[in-house]
Every structure is written in structure tokens, then in C-alpha cells.
């Protein structure tokens, strides 16, 4: 086996998820990530809903950051896109932003922190 075949085999073993398993989203979209948490011998699923403020990396090491405001405190969490602990990713709203990394959202509060929502036509919904 050559070097490329070995790397491909290792990648398939470590990251069983493919691009078909992951929905497409970008910065500004509101998504819900269902994340499996293992504590000792117990296992539970926790949902984290927020706005995607950045997507970084490429290939199997791609990661994304989600921000939400909980009890007046901003909370950000970074998820590996192809993590085996992620059960599902749902895209709730498609936002309209002009930047790939919307760090300016950290300084905004109240109505200023809202992101415009993309209106879906009937043909796009299907």
C-alpha cells in the first residue's frame, strides 16, 4: 500500500461521517447541534442552539463556532464538524451576513445583535 492509500484508510476509520451526513451552513445561520455527552457509564444528548460565527479548517479537521446568549451571558462553543459525538445538526434559520467571521456580534446586544433572515421561496424550500 502506498502512503495515500494508508492515509485514506485511517481517515475513513477515524471519521465515519461524510459530507452527506452534515448539512450545509455558513456564518450567520442559526443551527441546533445535538451533542452526545458521556459521563461515566451514563450517556445523554444535549442541544446547543445559536448563531454560527465562524467556520475554520478544511477537510476532516473543519470546526465551527456557535454563539448564544444564555441568561444575559454570551456563550460560545467550538465543535469539530465530523465529530462522532455529534448526533445531528439542524439548520433553523438562514441568516444574511456579508462576512465569513462575524466576531462583531460579540459586542452587540439587544436588537442590534439580530441577523436578517433569508426569505425562502417555494422552489427553494423543496
Task: Provide a descriptive summary of the structure in words.
The protein has two helices and five strands. With 126 residues, the chain is mainly beta. It has a five-stranded antiparallel β-sheet with strand order 4-3-2-1-5, with no helix packed on it. A hairpin with a 2-residue loop joins β3 and β4. The N and C termini lie far apart (44 Å). The model has no long low-confidence stretch (mean pLDDT 87).
The portion of residues assigned to helices is: 10-25%
The counted number of beta strands is: 5
What profile does the largest beta sheet have?
5 strands, antiparallel
The strand order across the widest sheet is 4-3-2-1-5
Number of helices: 2
Distance between the termini: 44 Å
Sheet-strand content, in percent, reads 35-45%
- Integer-rounded radius of gyration: 17 Å
Question: How would you state the average pLDDT, rounded?
Answer: 87
Secondary structure class reads mainly beta
Q: Please mark out the parts with pLDDT under 50 across 5 or more consecutive residues, or reply none.
A: none
* General form: globular
H-E string = HEEEEEH
Summarize the SSE layout with pairings:
Layout: H1 3-14, E1 30-39, E2 42-56, E3 63-70, E4 73-80, E5 86-93, H2 122-125
Antiparallel strand pairs: 1-2, 1-5, 2-3, 3-4
Amino acid at each position: 500500500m502506498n502512503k495515500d492509500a494508508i492515509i485514506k484508510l485511517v481517515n475513513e476509520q477515524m471519521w465515519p461521517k461524510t459530507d452527506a451526513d452534515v448539512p450545509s451552513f455558513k456564518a450567520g445561520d442559526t443551527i441546533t447541534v445535538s451533542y452526545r455527552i458521556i459521563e461515566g457509564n451514563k450517556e445523554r444528548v444535549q442541544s446547543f442552539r445559536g448563531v454560527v460565527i465562524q467556520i475554520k479548517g478544511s477537510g476532516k479537521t473543519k470546526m465551527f463556532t456557535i454563539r448564544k446568549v444564555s441568561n444575559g451571558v454570551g456563550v460560545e462553543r467550538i465543535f469539530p464538524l465530523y465529530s462522532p459525538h455529534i448526533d445531528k445538526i439542524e439548520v433553523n434559520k438562514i441568516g444574511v451576513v456579508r462576512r465569513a467571521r462575524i466576531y462583531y456580534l460579540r459586542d452587540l446586544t439587544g436588537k442590534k445583535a439580530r441577523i436578517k433572515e433569508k426569505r425562502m421561496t417555494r422552489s427553494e424550500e423543496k
